[in-house]
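Input sequence (64 aa), recorded before submission:
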Amino acid sequence: MQAGKKICFRCGLNHPCDGNYFIILFPKNVELVSRQYGNKIKFKLIENPYQLHVDLPEVLDAVI
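Predicted structure, token format:
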């Protein structure tokens, strides 16, 4: 596999409630790293040290 460019972008882990997780890669990001559909892509997940934290009101937290 030929090495492509490296990119960094924010993303979230999605899950279909079956224990698996996935990240959505937009076509523009796949093209930026010189890959095509079906190619393998190496990735590294890094925790964002500047997480957005929102305090929920008690009433909303109870409903959720």
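Checked by second reader. The first helix runs from residue 27 to 32.
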